[in-house]
Amino acid sequence: MLEILLGVVIGVVLGTISGIIPGVHANTLAGVLLGLQAFLLSFLGPLALAGSMFSALITHTYVDAIPSTFLGVPDADTSLAVLPAHALCFEGKGEEAVRIAALGSTYAIILAVPLSLLCFLVLPAFQSYFDWWIGILLVAAIGYMIVNGDAPGWALAIFCVSGILGCFALHYSFLAWHTVGGESAILMPLLAGLFGISMLVMASRGKVPPQRYSGILLDERKIAKCSVLGTLAGVAVGWLPGLSTASANGVLASIIGYEKDRRGYILATNAANTANAFIGLTALFALSRMRNGVMAAIAELPPQSMSALMVIGILAAVCAYVITVYLARHASLLNGFDSSLLNRSVIVFVVLLCIVLTGPFGLLILILATAVGIVPHIINQPAVYCMGCIMIPVMAYSFGILI
Question: Deepest of 177, 227, 234, 309, by most Cβ within 10 A of its Cβ?
């Protein structure tokens, strides 16, 4: 019990730090902890160390709604959710956006834990079939979005160009500095350029409007529907190889329009993000497959109990919800802040962080991604088609084409 509580406390602190700082992921912290394992295991114990990694991941899925909403900087797992959340912030409803995100993550915990146990018992026998169908399912999802869009030609062009950029970035990711986080670090400049800096460059100028909270404008039926959709999407991409929550965001965008139903989309994508973390743990124990950097780090430690790590994740989620809501309540501190100065400051920070983490190649990807990401804003098309940067490489992987 002491190791469990110690893992929760350490993980919640680390996850809060990584969630608040744009561009820093729980995978980064897991890599640092893994590098110090010889020292940490001597007084923490293997369960506390593994638990701190997992609870940091769960906490991060909650707290990263703060920079996504108020700074407009995307995390690799919630890049599309930045757009409606940041829009609500500039309507003075930033706290509501953060609370919706936290609510989605909490409902995902309730649904994902029993689903994870079901997956653990049933799905390993069908894994070979799942591996083959991934690409076809993604082709169907993006095809539906493109055909039903206002300008299918532009949509297809944006999707393909962003996909080519994603393939280029991932194929040559070894050229980037891997200060922390391994080769997946290249996703930071890729997604920050497509969904973060491009949006900040095109954002309106002026003062941040007064932030007021007057409740969550979602009825119980909508909350239940979006929670279930988001959790199922998170479970799917967490179990299937080669996918990430960013892929789930793209699929959810074809079901829940993030421009028409911003609140529902925020809730669903955050539910997917948290559910993905739990199912990733299940995939580690059931299939010995590592779906993210945290799971890869846990796999390097002495074997632990999945049930104990699940308990740690649930306790971390309770703490993370309280922390996220508390931080959101202080959104009024941004009232009247010069948004131009804020945007420029965030852009400079992300560029510097990109250089530190990924070097000159990462900076090149950031510039190219920003140029591609600006195009949808210029021609008034949804930025969801930029998810080709993730979906096309995954399709290629599924069809046996190495990226």
Answer: 234
Query: 391: which residues sit within 8 A by CB, 6+ positions away?
Result: 138, 142, 159, 163, 247, 250
Please, how many CA atoms are within 13 Å of residue 243, restricted to the half-sphere of its CB?
Answer: 32
Cα angle vertex 333, ends 331, 339, to 5°? 90
Rounded to whole angstroms, how far apart are CA atoms 139 and 144?
A: 8
Whole-structure pTM value: 0.76
**364 within 8 A of 131, measured Cβ to Cβ:** no
The tokens describing 324, both together, are 């996220």
Q: Which residue has the tokens 């993370």?
A: 320
Token digits of residue 90: 């500039």
Backbone φ, ψ for residue 207 (5° rounding): -95, 150
pLDDT in tens, 67-97: 878 876 555 555 556 678 878 888 888 899 9
- 218/17 Cα distance (integer angstroms): 29
Q: pLDDT, tens digit, for every residue of 46-60?
A: 899 899 989 999 999
